Every structure is written in C-alpha cells, then in structure tokens.
Amino acid sequence: MNIDATSILRDADALMRTDSSNPPGDCRATADAAEALLRAIPGAEVTRHDFDAPNANVVAVLHGAAPGRTLLLNGHLDCYGIGDASAWTVPPLAATLKDGMLYGRGSADMKGGIAAMMAAFRAMAERRNAWRGKLVLALGSDEETMGVRGTKYLLDTVPACRADACLIADAGSPRVARFGEKGMLWVRLSATGRAAHGAHVHLGDNAAARLVEAVRRTLALAGPPAGADPAVVEAIRRAASVSEPEAGAGETDTLLSVTINLGRIAGGELVNLVAARAEAALDIRVPHGTTTSEVEARLRAALADLPGIALEILVRWEPSATPPGSEIVHLVQDAGEAVLGTRPVATMRVGASDSRLTRAAGIPTVVYGPAPRNMGGPDEHVAMADLLAVAEVHARVAEKFLSA
Predict the structure, then answer these.
(1) Maximum C-alpha span of the chain
(2) Residue 320: enclosing H or E segment and its boundaries?
(3) How far, in Å, CA of 44 to CA of 38, rounded?
(4) pLDDT of res. 341
(5) E strands within 193-269?
(6) Can you say how many angstroms the Cα of residue 127 is from the centroid of all Cα atoms in its chain?
(7) CA–CA gap between residue 284 and residue 365 (Å, rounded)
C-alpha cells in the first residue's frame, strides 16, 4: 500500500487550519477542505449532505472492479474548542510537526485520524482493479455534542453509508481494537424549596440540602451490573494488560461498571439565605449488560421519597458492542499484527463515539485510531507513527474485506 507521512501531514494541516469547534459546531469550512481533498482522488464520487447551517457533512465513494460488499470509513469533522490560546506553545489552528509528534487542535480527535483514513482511501483508489464493492468515507459534523445531524443523518439519507462493516479512526491506540462502547444518560436534578433567612432555618426548606441528598443517592448507584455477555467481559479482562497502560489504570473496572460523574452543581443566592432552588447535572455511563432504562428506573426509585426533587433526562444512548469474534474485529487485529509486529487486543471503549450510531444501524464497527495526548487541552498532539499505522491498517482491512 502506498501510505506516506507527507500526505497525512498535508491533509491534516488543511483540515486543522479550519476552526470547527463544537460548540458552536460550524463545520462548513472544514467540510469545504475535506471535500477539496477528496475530489482530488481519482475515481472518488464526492457529495455534500448538509443537514442545516452550520452542520456540514461529506461523503466520498470509490467503486471497485465489480459489485461486492461495502466498507464504511467514518469520522467527525468537529472538535473541541481551542480554549485559552495563550496556554498553547504551538498555533492551535495548524498542524505542527515536532519530534515525531503532530500538534494542533484535532490532531488526535480526530482530524489526524481523518487524514489517516484519507491516506487509506487514496491507496485503495490506486488499486481499484484489485478489489470489489464500495469503499465509502463519510465525515459527519456533530459528534462532540452527541448530535444526530452528522453521521446519523448520513446513515438515514445516504444509501451508500449503509455498509456491511465500519472502521472509525477516532482516538484510541494502534495497539487496541475497540469493538464497543458504554452507553450514557446525562441527567439534570432540580431541587425546589422555600427561601428564608439563614438564621431562621425553621421557616424555610433548603433546596440545596435536598439536592445534596439526591446527588448522594444517585452516586450510590455506581457499580457493576449483572447480565453482561461473558465473551465481552472476557475480552475486556484479557485486553487489560495492554489497554490499561494506554488508557489508564482502572479502565477495566470502568468498562464493566455503571460510572457517575457529578459534572455541575449550583444553588442558592447568598450564604445567609436558605436556598429556594438548586440544580445538578450528572453524566452516567452505562456498561454492556444493562440498559439506560434499567439505570433510569433504579435512579427514579432511589429518589422517589425525596420531596422537591425533579429528574430530567438530557441525553440517552444505549451501550453498543460488535461481537468480539466478528470478522471486522479479526481483520483489524490481523492487519495490526502485520503492521505493528504485535497483535492488537480487542476491548470496549470508555468514551462515546459515532460508533453508537453505526452499530444501532446494524453495522459491525471497530474504532481503531491513534493514541491521544492532551486531547481537548492545550498542545493536543498525536504520534505521526500512530497515524501511519492507522492508515496502513485501515487500508489493509479495506483491501481484505473488499476482496473476500
């Protein structure tokens, strides 16, 4: 396969020079850049599918020598905001190569990954007579906020995106093939009470105190559920010795448990007033083996006897998994072994991605991308060696899957 660092760096730079921070999620300039790069690939049929402004999506299709299966390469054009520009030591909106590392916003999540997929797409275009079916590269626009105007919209409206399998070069590690991910419930707890002077607590009902108890009961719901697929549990535990050094100690328990993050809490007006209102927002991650409905039912039961507490579901996505013994999982591991010299392990993913959407559409999916560094923070970067490996693996998987 003709994969080279020069094209990956060039394409990453073209994408990273456009600001697609989400929020606000204006991906039009990045989509323009991606569209121009893809139209330069011989044989690529490139179309634009914008849900509405400022969302923008791009799809490119390559046809092989004969009819056959379809493989989808999927990515997202949006990324985190720059934040405090003075905290960066490199220009945030550009690709800077330093000591083998590619720096800039989106280098790891996931404009670098898109550039790697473009390199694989280009390599497959050069060998169109050697494979059958279709290779599709679909780039959506609103992954960072778990929206449905990007990949979900493409799956619903572009027939070519309804593939037989999918690869996503989102942040991860070349040593790990991610075949599933946890689901999520984002919830808001609102508490109401009766205001009074802080010295006259007997005349008020403290909403902040009510909220504290509601949060305490919510956090107590964390822990492992029963009923997970033994094959999935075994794969997660077997992968721990490789995946935990990449993703951090404790990843295995996190993957197998309901985890709850108290992301925001606020209430009251003054220290000497009984709070009349208070609010908290929590991110509940749901492992394979349970459902968001089951977790919600447990949460509502835990809060049922608390006065003045309201529960609102802000975001709901189910956990998803492609069976670890699936063809696409093994093909990624085979290709990874050929490129790296060691076989990537297969496990679940802690964070969410658009793979939840492709799996919900019935498409077996693996997330296989570069290891992120400072993702979302100043000086986000990724190893160029990772991007080269990801591109080579995606190309090898595409050729094997579409030659079967």
Answers:
(1) 83
(2) strand 320-321
(3) 7
(4) 97
(5) 196-197, 259-267
(6) 30
(7) 23
